[in-house]
Specification:
215 residues, Arc Repressor Mutant, subunit A, Tetracycline Repressor, domain 2, 2 domains, 12 helices, globular
Length: 215
C-alpha cells in the first residue's frame, strides 16, 4: 500500500477506494464483491486497486479493519473511562446507536466476515483494542468488575459478572441492526416504521438496562 504521507493525491485516491469498497463489501460480502464494481464506484481504474492494495484479499482486510474501528474503540474507551456505571451505560448505548444508525449493515457484515474468515478475529481485536489488545480488554473487564462489586456492596445493583455486563450491553444495541431483515418481517415494519422503532429503542434502552441491573 502506498504510504499516506507521499502526497494528497495518494491519500484521496486510497480513501475513495476504501469508501467504495466498504459499500460494496458490506452489501455483498467479500465473496460476492467484484473489483470491477469497486473501481467503478470509486471512479478509478481497476489497476489502481491493485497498486494500493495488491489483491482483493488485501483490500478486504483493509475494509474490515476500517469497519471495526468505526464502533469498538469508542465503546471501549467509554467502558474503560472513569465515568460512573450509569454514565457508561448511557454513553455506550448512545455511541452504538449513533454509529450503527449511520452504518446499519456494519454488524451483519462483521459477523458474516468472522463466520467465513475466522482469521479476522485477531484483526478485529487489534482494531478495537490496538496492540496488546488482550491486556487492554482484560483491564477494561477488571475495572468494570471493581465498579460492579462496589455497587453490589452498596446495595444498588444485583450481582453480575463484568463479562456478562459487557456482552449484554453490546448485544442489546447491536442485535436490532444485525437481525434487521428478520425483525422487519416479524414485527411487520417497513423501512420508515423500523426507523421509528430504532429511535424508540435509543430513547428507552439505557433505562431498561439499568433497571435490570437493579432488580
Amino acid at each position: 500500500m502506498v504510504e499516506a504521507n507521499q502526497n494528497g493525491t495518494d491519500r484521496d485516491a486510497e480513501e475513495a477506494i476504501l469508501e467504495a469498497a466498504h459499500e460494496v463489501f458490506v452489501r455483498r460480502g467479500t465473496a460476492g464483491a467484484r473489483m470491477r464494481e469497486i473501481a467503478d464506484a470509486a471512479g478509478v481504474n481497476q489497476a489502481l486497486l491493485h497498486y494500493y492494495f495488491r489483491s482483493k484479499e488485501g483490500l478486504a482486510r483493509a475494509v474490515f479493519g476500517r469497519a471495526a474501528r468505526r464502533l469498538m474503540p469508542a465503546v471501549l474507551r467509554a467502558l474503560g473511562s472513569d465515568l460512573s456505571l450509569d454514565e457508561k451505560v448511557e454513553r455506550v448505548i448512545a455511541t452504538e446507536m449513533e454509529v450503527l444508525g449511520q452504518h446499519p449493515y456494519l454488524p451483519g457484515y462483521i459477523l458474516c466476515e468472522l463466520a467465513h474468515h475466522p482469521e479476522r478475529a485477531d484483526q478485529l481485536v487489534e482494531a478495537a483494542l490496538g496492540e496488546g489488545g488482550d491486556a487492554a480488554g482484560q483491564a477494561v473487564v477488571s475495572l468494570l468488575g471493581r465498579q460492579l462489586e462496589e455497587a453490589r456492596e452498596a446495595g444498588t445493583i444485583a450481582p453480575i459478572d463484568p463479562r456478562q455486563f459487557v456482552v449484554n450491553l453490546l448485544a442489546l444495541a447491536i442485535f436490532p441492526f444485525a437481525a434487521r431483515p428478520l425483525l422487519e418481517i416479524m414485527l411487520g415494519l417497513d423501512e420508515v416504521g423500523y426507523g421509528e422503532f430504532l429511535e424508540e429503542r435509543r430513547q428507552q434502552l439505557a433505562g431498561f438496562f439499568l433497571r435490570g441491573l437493579r432488580s
